[in-house]
Amino acid sequence: MLRTVKSSMLVALAGAALALSGCGDGDKGGSAPGTGGGGGAADAGAAVPCFSVAWSEYPSWSTFGVAGELKLIDGKKGALGPIEKKWGVDIELKQADYDPCLVMYGSGQCDAVCITNMDVLSPSLSRKSVAVAPTSTSCGADALIVSGDLKDVQSLKGKSVYGLAKTVSEYCFVRNLELLGEKEADYKFTNMDPGAAALAMQQKKEGYEAIVVWNPFVLETLNKRPDARVLFDSARIPGEIVDMLVVAADSLEKPKGREFACAALDAFYAVSARIEDPRTRDETLVALGEKFSHLKVEAMKKVVEQTKFYKTPDEGLALFTGAEMPKVMDKVVDFCVKHDIVKDKPVLGFGDKAAAGAAVLRFDPSFMTAVKDRK
Amino acid sequence: MAGATNRGIVFECRGVHHAFGPNMVLHDVNFRIVRGEIVALVGPSGCGKSTLLRAIVGTHPPGRGRILVGRRGAAEMAEVAEPGRDRGIVYQRYSLFPFLTAQQNVALGPMLDQTSLAFRAFRFPSWRRLRRRHMEEAAELLARVGLGKALKLYPHEMSGGMCQRVAIAQALIMKPEILLLDEPFGALDEATREELQRMLLTLYAENCRAAGRGEEPPLTVLIVTHEINEAIFVGDRVLGLSQYWDWRGAGHAACPGATIVYDKAVPVCAPDADRNFDLFRDRRREILDVVFSPEVLPDREKHCLFWRQLENGEGQGVLQPWATAATTSGAGRDGSSTPGRPGPSS
Amino acid sequence: MIRQPASMRAKVVLGAMAVVLMLAGYTVLSERQHRLNPDDTTIPTWSLLGRGVSRIVEVGRVVPGSEESRSWLARQKTRWLVADASATGYRLFLGLLLGVAGAVVLGLLMGCFEKVEAFFAPPLSLLAKVPPTAILAVFFVLTQTYTQMCVAMVAFGILPTMAQAIYLGVKEVPRELIYKAYTLGASHAEVVWNVILRQVLPKIIDGVRLQIGPAMVFLIAAEWLGGEVGFGCRIRLESRLAHMHTVYPYLALLAGFGFGMDAALRRLQRWLCPWCAGGC
After folding, report:
1. Gap from B58 CA to chain C (nearest CA, Å)
2. Quick check: ipTM above 0.85?
3. With an 8 Å Cβ cutoff, are A192 and C225 in contact?
4. May I ask the CATH architecture of the domain A2-137+242-293+308-373?
5. In sequence order, which residues have a C-beta less than 8 Å from that of residue B201 and are 6 or more positions away?
6. Which of A170, B117, C1, C26 has the fewest Cβ atoms within 10 angstroms?
7. Is B1-86+177-346 in CATH node 3.40.710.10?
8. What is the pTM (predicted TM-score) of this model?
9. What is the pLDDT of residues B303-324, one digit of tens each?
């Protein structure tokens, strides 16, 4: 018995040790050109600093996987794709589940991570972060699904609503209650893994009449249980649950750090453009679907509707420079403090480094501008 | 059969046959044991001694035939088909429960025999009193077999000889009608083996004293052994079970299994007698030939002379009063034997 | 020389040294990481770990006028440690109890009756190879509540392996002992209770000792999926927020708990089965 517990501890410790030694990502000392992130790979890439992006399966984040597959960027360390050559950086793609991505980012094992505007608050406190661009916003991808006989939100009172606590699911639920003028205290949100909650719902398990989950579980549950329906979803709070690409502030300080962020965004916009273009739309969606729960193209069309991409720098800029963004983030931060996700309100900043000052998390539109200008 | 319960027949195998599928193992095994005897059963390995013993213990009843046990105070012998408290058994190994001390091992019998699970669970105070008595009884018995100081030892803390003493005490406390010993000293060194043989002879001497007083001898033993000297030394009678007999002469096309080919009283040794196996040399030779030799195929009746010996008043030890009664009454108890036939004088 | 015996004292000193070295290594690691990033929470310093520990044991938010503000007992339950340990402990012990009880009954029946053995042996050896975490959907259908699911996961997780061990143990009881018991006048029930069960008891305890590890893994995996309290769900939520200073104390607690259970069961074995000194 001891062995298992001890070994899990060891794994945790080893993971921590990796954070120190791995790729030199969080290592200021290794930032000199040639010896930096590249880690001394022998070929042409050796001279080019290497940065890593951690991504998990999600419609707008699987674009990085597709970009790697299309060879726009070469996800391996030491090999360069056209976009990497254009910006003169080497990007390493690291795919993992969402939670491990967060841990990877928090422990400094990657330079950039795909993360939501809510989940980024906690790691920002230990690792100053810069949101370089929004990739998409949830517009129906997070939904409250109820069994058919529950007609309105009042009928949920006294029942458990299952979803993963302290995540966008709970945020989506609480914000919708607010919009409906309901009191949060009257409802019971119960922590449960979204996969498990969806499974329970699909099995018509007693007591599991309402779940808040994200895609692909929303689509899957609605498919497998025709009598279930969406009571409300994130479509009512567009632009509040924002999926982003976040880069660690020290990584941006390294030589070519800014170019790295731009290259990653360039790749994202390149794939987004292929989805927009009717000639390449279907094949790109098929490729994207393979990297998102193996969904077929029809389902993917629905998915990209519910997950609205910020497909051009202009759309991204509109969000980050808009007047709404600080207000949205205020709501998110309030929620996080109230739900014990962060202890104190983190200082947020909007604009470039000079404008944002001592903020632990800043929403910086300058990278999108740079990508736009260097088309 | 007047007086049969007193000094009478305590055990009988009547027409026991056994086969494992096509393998004939036992063929028409017949013998009776007088209360108080120590009967040694010998035979070549693989002859079916273990099969016969398992049949007697009752764990593997014989294919055909009956096994009868005479119980104290009962007029008729009773047929047995499963293990019971009237037959005690001591195996070569695994006779003791490893999780009990010597004393607990011995006290286990009375506990299982006299109480039930329900009694022990629901009538705890009475059980406690009874248990104390059992433990005292066990301690006494262990002292009698020379283990008064080993009461609290677990089997793994005792030598092989000590374990077998405890095992015998464990069986004795049940006062079985017959005690079965299955190669009991086979795994012991020579000195220990001799000690234990003498212990059996001591118990036998008690039998003789009881018989002399006209009482029921307390203990009857059937000891299975592959050691002929041991058989002659501790037994007052040797039974030979063997597949080497004249089955062709009896009209069989193939060997129908082992049967009793040798049944004779042997001289009784005192517990402190010299253990000089030279004295048994002739007897040993005879048994080796008749029972163990594949070349010698005797007629199965030829060496089964025990009852005739008794009728001739040849019985020693516990058999002495019995034999005397037989000669004075002038009629054999075994209907098939002819009285008055002379035998070797003792 | 190889296998040169070492003195007890040397063993103790070396063992203690290894622990001290481990702790020192951690301290150095954490110092280094904090020189790089003073706000790091992935390899917390001792003081940060201390704060994590106090976060775990401190009384939670108490709303005036609530149940917690009035009752001392209810207030204790707002401590994470109390809430998590009682939830996880309840699930673990109930699961272990049911699993072990089931395994003992099944193992005894299989060891005593060959027909029962023939019926159960194939599915059992199959199920022993299937991690219960992989058949979560089945447990969902089988159980009503979340706690029941955790308990069922633990119970069914350990049952096949334990039942196998017990029934093999029962089959290893020398037949002579069983016959012997019958010649001593035992009933069938007494043979089971006074001979077989006594004989396999150390094996049962060993089985529990070996299965506590897997049981905890299954339980943590089940708790990982949800619930309000419990070690598994707390560790998931906290590690997601990169709060390693609370995660590590939880892991240490789990390790300590496992160590304690192991020692306690060893003790129990020595006390209940003094005859099998040094293991049977």
Report:
1. 9
2. no
3. yes
4. 3-Layer(aba) Sandwich (3.40)
5. B233, B234, B269, B270, B271, B273
6. C1
7. no
8. 0.78
9. 888 888 888 877 778 887 766 7
